[in-house]
Design a protein that fits this description.
Oligomer: single chain
Order of helices and strands: EHEHEEEEEEEEEEEEEEEEEEEEEEEEEE
Strand order of the largest sheet: 1-4-3-2
Structural class: mainly beta
Helix content: under 10%
Number of helices: 2
Length: about 475
Amino acid sequence: MCILPSWPVLILFRPGSTGLVITSGMNALLAACLIVPLASGAGPAAARACGGHPLDFDADGRPDLAVAAPYDDARAGSVTVMYGSGEKVKLTQQDAEPGDSFGSALAVGDFNGDRCADLAVGVSEEFVGERVPGGDGNGVVQIFDGSPEGLVAGRRLAPAKPSSDRFGAALAAGDFDGDGRDELAVGAPSHRSGGAVTVYGMKGREPVRITQKTPWVRQRASVTDQWGGALASGDFDGDGIDELAIGAPADSVTMDGQGSVTVIDVRRERARLLTQSTPGIKGAAEKWDNFGAALATGDFNGDGKDDLAIGVPGEGLTANQRAMDYGDGTVDVLYGSRAGLRTDRTEAWSQNTLEGKPRYYDRFGASLAAGDFNGDGIDELAVGVPGEKAVQVLMGRASGGLTRAGNLLVKGKGQDFGASVAALPGWERYRSLESRRRPVDGLVVAAPDQGLIMYAPGKRASGRVELGKVRQLDQSGGLYGYAFG
């Protein structure tokens, strides 16, 4: 066991060590799902340099996976990093306290410009001072810097005036100022103004805090809006600079809990409000729809501009549905253009037109992820349907974007399979950044209630999407799989 002289503690699990050990079976499964063979002649870790790969924490050219368990150890929380080499590392806090929820959110980006992927960990229920029984946490965010030796504890972020903000409940990384280095957006959905988002790392600027009351945002705010409860970044206009999508799933714009999404250009200080009442967006705003509860960005039509998928898990489709039922759920998709996200050709997806049958408890759209599961260079959309213990996968294509043709309904183990989803590159070595051929993504799915992490490999195919057999990758407790990085 190696304890670093810093705030968090890293407990290493190595085959053959005198501490906790990964079984040979786990090593084999990790190898099958995560390992990408190194070229012969690769030097030791100290001789490696970071290659700029977006999910490579240790510069070995293999994709790595971070899995959060915010209820681990009496809700103190932990994050497990499964390196592509098969090594398994557990991150915890040195000053951990019950109820901190270390791992309430995760984000990956290059925050220091060294071309290594770094990991941001939200600790939304941490109290800077004395804990308030029954109160929301102040929240902090811990950064772990990527390096050839793996993740190393870095700086810690906290709001200037901590309150019951739940700072760190949502995170997103993106290049919001065009300097080639990722910035970090931190959501604080319980901020007294109705929610807040703070962006760290803008070139030449102090941290930028944004709320609905910010002059260039100008939205009506309610304390229960949860503005900043979900975050995603994407370059929706193709100018090389990311925009930030901010979900407020409980925003009562005109109806209680209908939800909203605000798309902001941090550098230019511009904001755009989207709801199901926005002209062109499919569906109708209703109470407790939770529009914006989940967000994902990807290029679903291959035009080089990011598109936005918005989860509406509370949408009711079943007849005679009661108020406050979970909801059948839908997903709205808006496509990028030179002018930004378009509302003249949006899509609304539900199981009314896909494999499966909508039920009032399905929560279709409770989680979302974009990934290229067939290797054609165009992203597919994975939609979590935890009430059905399933994930729906829609194929992207150059002619028209997402299509119902050949959609997959992937079933798995666990009572809430599909509550968290992610795409993980795998099965072949990372190519150079100049290569036009992308690796094929695999689908990672969690059932956090049982702590199950499942993996289905993608398959290189033309004009269709196929996934390999769903296999168990890992299992632990404490809502293991609540978030991925």
